[in-house]
Amino acid sequence: MNNYKTHDYEGMVAETVSIKSRNGDFINAYLSKPLGDGPFPSIVLAHHLPGWDELYKEFTRKFTHHGYLAITPDLYFREGNGSPDDVASEVRSQGGISDKQALDDLVGAADHLRSLPNSNNKVGIFGTCSGGRHAFLAACTVDTFDAAIECWGGNIVMDETSITEKQPISPVTLSSSLSAPLLGIFGNDDVSPPPDQVDKHEEVLKENNKNFDFYRYDGAGHGFMYYDRPYYRQQQSVDAWDKIFKFTEKNLRK
Amino acid sequence: MCTMISEKANIKGAGKNSSNWIPIDSCDVYYDHSNYVDCEHSITLSFNNKLNPIESRITVEITPESAKEIIEKINAALNQANF
What is the domain range of residue A76? Predict the structure, then answer.
């Protein structure tokens, strides 16, 4: 928690739960809740392409440590059961999941958070990699979210050859419909998304007079906040988490 | 976001996991951000059996340079065998 002092009592409950997707399916999700009456702000996490893995469950608890109800739906729930790496490999071999399916599950997760008795009714969305793309897409497609954090979302700017049945719309074309304040976190050494695509993303948001802040880090590439990967960048990561929590406090706490 | 560069090879063979040999009929080949190898992008070979495509997976992740080296060595071995 932001104002946490060492003598304060602290606790959380974190567990796997079953939630209802917007399309009526029941899927698994990882839910963590601070102990106490609240009311607490909430955050939905859209996991990255490598799946519903330990890192994302840690991210979920990290938000709760800072005083948020947090939930990460298993966006690959329908694709099979196994170790996260192996499920993700299978999903990847099928060309990923559809945008519609992901949005149904993320909206269902937000609905679940708002139904909790200690929710303050404000819900943000956070995502990295494909989850960053899903976070932006969600914030442009539904008015469910009160804030969006997009970390190195690729394929926001898609050319015609990238359009598929599962990803039928280039998200940048939906920028005029962005319905929440947006925080963008990017590494300047990333090649997916490359800096020129982030430039375009930023330019279109400016043209549409949207409320957004982009932070673009030198000396960092894709996934620089993943402490379990070789491309982890400590200083940039610490700074980015600080930016993220300042953003969520401003937009979700009050 | 990850590159999503992915190819599938239909193959005939077998692979050994931590305890058993299992029949393999598919290999997914990815070029994407690495999970463990210290490089930005790697080649992943994910061998599997289509009847059980998740739990059967036997996966290795190598640098792109290593992938080229292996391709060369496989071709060299096949040439020596006049295959």
Answer: 12-253
Residue from A119, A131, A21 nearest A70 by CA = A119
CB contact under 8 A, A87 and B54: yes
pLDDT band at A2 (very low <50, low <70, confident <90, very high): low
Residue B29: its chain A contacts at CB < 8 A? Answer: none
Task: Give the residue on A whose Cα is nearest the Cα of B33.
Answer: A222
Whether A197 has its CB under 8 Å from any CB of chain B: the answer is no
Q: Helix axis angle, A130-141 relative to A99-114, nearest 10°?
A: 70
Contact B38 A221 (CB under 8 A): no
* Count of the separate structural domains present in chain A: 1
Q: What's A28's domain CATH number?
A: 3.40.50.1820
* Cα A11 to chain centroid, rounded: 24
Contact B36 A193 (CB under 8 A): no
pLDDT for A5 equals 79
pLDDT tens, A198-216? 999 999 999 999 999 999 9
